[in-house]
Amino acid sequence: MDGNIGDQSDNLLRPRACERCARSKAKCVWTDREKDGMKMFQGASYMHRPSTWNKKGAREIDLEGIMSLLGEHKDLLQHVNKTSGPSGSQPQAAAPRPPTSDWNIPRLENHRIPVTQPTLPSSFTQQLNSRETQKFEIVSGYEMSFDEADQVLQEYMIMMLPQFPFVPLETTDVFQLSREKPLLLKTLLFVCRPSDSQSRTNFDEWFRQHIAHQIVVLNRKSIELIQAIMIFLAWRDFRHFIDGLHTSLMQLAVGLIGEMRLDRCPQLPKKLINSIVEDVEMLGFDVPVQEGPLNIGRRTALGIFYIATSASLLLSKSSCMRYNETFERFCQVLLHDREYPTDALLVQLVKIQIVASKLITSYTNSAGDGIYELSFHSMTTSLVRKELDDFTSQLQPELVSNHLIRSHKQAILVRLYEPAIHSEPLKWPYASLSRTEGIWNCFQNAITLCFSFMETPHDVISCLTFPYTAHLTMGLIKIIKLLRITGDRDWDARVAEKEVNIEDLIQRLSDFFRAGSLVMGPRRRIIDQSQDILAQYADRLGMLKMWCSLYLSGNAMNPVGSGEQMTDSNINFGLEGNLAFWQMFVDGTS
């Protein structure tokens, strides 16, 4: 009996396990400290009262409730994964963890979320929406989903960058580019996915206003602005350069390059004359150190030089950005670093444009009085041919047959021999023979240029920049002009007709563009009058063939004077715009 009484007293003195520890079969650890008649439970954030209070613990979290929350948490995650889909973005970060007790139990990140109808932050909910329903506004009235924008950037890096390797992207993430380079992103998306004529007009107006506001009004200088101008100009129709619509943009880009010193190289020898800043530095005053550009700046400067030289070769006038010996140093650095696979092609495109710039400088600075200067032309021809041969000999094997390099080389050769066409016949037999040789070489290289164009893969035709189509047009126009020449004792058009069937050549080119318009690829959504741009090229060539069949057939028997117009009433085919386009070249001086 006494033992039973003792046992009962021991039970009364022994601390009972709390309800949580009893359910989980864990041992309660008690301290000897007491406060206000209550014993402290080590590791808990509340006071242990007698067991009768534990049974009434309204503020304790029941283990069954915890398990229920775990189940709801799992269901919520499954719902999130189904909603976001395979291409959906993941939540950026978990919600801040609410304050919990120091119980030795698994902590739940979302245990405060209600069991029924869970709610998420609005920003997180937006990220869970399908990217296909999210739109990125390029310009007013023209939007693009984020999924399509991702696809466009991938296509740009794979298909379009090899045609113009001056603006590689460090990232193809749309969200990151929209934060870091929003102007470049919008320009890329619109150039790669242009819309109808009205949208193009709206974008052109917005782009020019934005560039002018940033550079002229806000006086901002950044590589992004120059890159956006490059992308905007590279894939434009070359007729816009003829009309002078892009002169202001080119001048702004060239000015920015000079202001940002992107065309300078500190490693090169000093100039013969110094600027006022360099003179101040020599006097011992502190002047901010001007470091050379990084590779991104080098590509930017070389890209503007490439566009400017291509336009000047097309228009036969001085370039707004002349050759600088710094460019050769830039090429060496880029070729050494090889940050991108396209840098090798970039260097070769710049090198051949350096040759073109020297040719343009020689011819545009000549007298131009209509007299065929035999000695000057012979010397220029010899030097340029030697530079072209040296350039070809140092090309990597994979670039020898590159369509861009081949086109640039043939265009230079056409321009090289062209002065013989526009000069007057001379009396001396030796000079006359040399002029005939020059005209014939120009004719042959123009034919080679047109036929080599058709060796371009169909899947990259829509990705070509304006110099490529400008070269083709220039070659065709030179052939037609030479076939129209009559009354020149140094040239016989009847012999030239036997060298090429111009109607067959034009038909093959038209079929080539027509086949290219059927191939899926970037920029094939260029819609104008319910046609893509390649189909328009095919139609223009078809009109040119009709004109040639009327005015060039039997040229010797039915000579055509230089003043006769293509828009004759006898050949009104209902496409006066296309006829005017070709008339501008055939009877012009380009």
From TrEMBL:
Biased composition (Polar residues): 80-92
Record's GO cellular component terms: nucleus
InterPro entries, per the entry: prtT
Region described as Disordered: spans on this chain: 79-105
Coiled-coil annotated residue ranges, if any: none
Location(s), subcellular: Nucleus
Keyword DNA-binding (UniProt): yes
Entry keyword Transcription regulation: yes
Gene Ontology MF: a single term: DNA-binding transcription factor activity, RNA polymerase II-specific
Protein name in UniProt: Zn(2)-C6 fungal-type domain-containing protein
Keywords: DNA-binding, Nucleus, Transcription, Transcription regulation
Domain of life: Eukaryota
